[in-house]
Amino acid sequence: MPRLAKEYKECDQNEKAYQSQDAIFVARKRNANAKKVKAMRWVKNVGLGIKTPDAAIEGTYVDKKCPFTGNVSIRGKILKGLVISTKMKRTIVVRRDYLHYIKKYRRFEKRHKNIHAHCSPCFAVKEGDIVTIGQCRPLAKTVKFNVVAHEAQRAKTGKKTFRMF
Tell me: the pLDDT tens digits for 66-78? Predict the structure, then answer.
């Protein structure tokens, strides 16, 4: 049985425009003796074995680009990487390290790619954390991934140290 918020909590109002979820009608009449009570927060299951975080179910944020409470579907690649920057608003930079084989020398060389990903407010992500990101539709010019899982930082490592997952 999923956890649902029964009573309405006012959404976080920290933008110029009024923030409310598209799927919820705030001014509905509440029947006191109704058998089935609809939830006042719309949350969906992403699928692919990804668990919906508690902060998405019980939170008060509004994010239309969130895979759990917004209008974004996760499809395509699921990747893991190291967070190297959280300076943008709701966007993080994830570093992915990999080995590239050079046939002539019969050896591998280290390479990396930086991927921009949208980070929903339900994840408290810091630099050095390991995140799982899922591909979605383009959300901005360079943002085509969304954070779907988060592992807290275990040991302090440098930004540019090579780590395989």
Answer: 999 888 999 999 9
